[in-house]
TrEMBL record:
PANTHER family in alphabetical order: QUORUM-QUENCHING LACTONASE YTNP-RELATED (PTHR42978:SF6), QUORUM-QUENCHING LACTONASE YTNP-RELATED-RELATED (PTHR42978)
Classification via InterPro entries: MBL_superfamily_lactonases, Metallo-B-lactamas, RibonucZ/Hydroxyglut_hydro
Name listed for the protein in its UniProt record: MBL fold metallo-hydrolase
Keywords from the UniProt entry: Hydrolase, Metal-binding, Zinc
Domain of life, source organism: Bacteria
Recorded family membership: Belongs to the metallo-beta-lactamase superfamily.
Record has Hydrolase as a keyword: yes
All residue ranges annotated as the Metallo-beta-lactamase domain in the record: 65-261
Length: 308
């Protein structure tokens, strides 16, 4: 007898509660990301030590998850970031699962009321549209910081010769069906009831974190202020990538700011690129650096680390 392997996995969605909010983490896939060029101002010996100490992949690559989240407030369905989608394989063919996993979770994309963009980089914005250019979320308003909108819809970038040319082309296509429903805001604004914004600019000049509060509990959705659950909290001073950060030093500084804010205000942390589902808490170590503790995935519906 031959036992055929199924070669399938559980659907990539996970629910968690924040006060009265029902949140659903949606897995879009992962980037097969290389260590080369990552954290260019890092001490190579320290990076190697952390890889060994935390049993991280020892080869040339590691998986960097993409994790949009849907928040049900009771009145609205709010999506934070849209994933890479299926319009491009710019970063490989391991992404584009948001729609399948969203539907598997019981959420209809037509029911999304609001999309909050941490920033408009491809792996966050290209999933706004189908490959034919039509909108995935045809009834949603699109919220983007005015600074990020200015940076990534600037048609002057189409004449450049670096990565900004194709990235801008893709962004312009992704936001095109939403032009009449774009809601620009300034970093630091309160944009909807129970939702405040915090500037974490650097990786993108309009990079935004969204803080949700309900019944005394808080969670922050941070986009790309940090990319790795081990390296960034322990060494927030490390730049992410000189090629892709709009301002690497500003991006490094933003990590320290938001990590301190999260710890000092008892806010649960969601990292868009952290290991799925990206949710956990940060603690401050004795030396002033930080540690991220991911929450274990559990089938217990409605579990909260605050109330049990």
């Amino acid at each position: 007898m031959t036992a055929k392997q199924l070669k399938t996995q559980n659907a990539g969605w996970y629910r968690f509660n924040v006060g009265a909010l029902e949140c659903t983490a949606i897995w879009d896939g992962y980037i097969h990301h290389g260590y080369e060029g990552l954290f260019p101002n890092a001490d190579p010996a320290e990076l190697a030590r952390l890889k060994e100490a935390y049993r991280l992949p020892q080869g040339e690559f590691f998986p960097m998850d993409l994790i949009p989240v849907v928040v049900n407030t009771g009145d609205k369905l709010i999506l934070i970031d849209a994933g890479m989608g299926r319009t491009s394989q710019l970063f490989g063919d391991t992404m584009g699962h948001t729609l399948d996993n969203m539907k598997a979770s019981g959420i209809n994309p037509d029911d999304i009321d609001v999309i909050l963009m941490t920033h408009l980089h491809p792996d966050h914005s290209y999933g706004l549209i189908h490959p034919d250019g039509t909108p995935v979320y045809k009834n949603a308003d699109l919220y983007v910081s005015d600074t990020d909108w200015e940076e990534w819809t600037d048609e002057a970038s189409l004449s450049r010769t670096d990565f900004r040319k194709p990235w801008t082309e893709g962004t312009l296509a992704a936001v095109a069906p939403y032009r009449e429903r774009v809601r620009l805001f300034k970093l630091g604004d309160d944009i909807l009831p129970g939702i405040t914004t915090l500037s974490v600019a650097g990786h993108s000049m309009g990079q935004c974190a969204f803080i949700f509060e309900s019944q005394g509990e808080k969670v922050v959705f941070t986009g790309d202020v940090a990319h790795h659950h081990i390296f960034d909290p322990i060494h927030p001073e490390w730049f992410f990538h000189m090629d892709y950060d709009s301002d690497p030093q500003m991006g490094a500084d933003a990590k320290s700011v938001i990590f301190a804010h999260v710890v000092d205000n008892n806010i649960r942390y969601h990292g868009y690129h952290f290991p799925y589902p990206g949710l956990g808490d940060l603690e401050r170590a004795e030396d002033g650096t930080y540690r991220f503790h991911g929450e274990a995935v559990t089938p217990r519906l409605g579990y909260s680390p605050v109330t049990g």
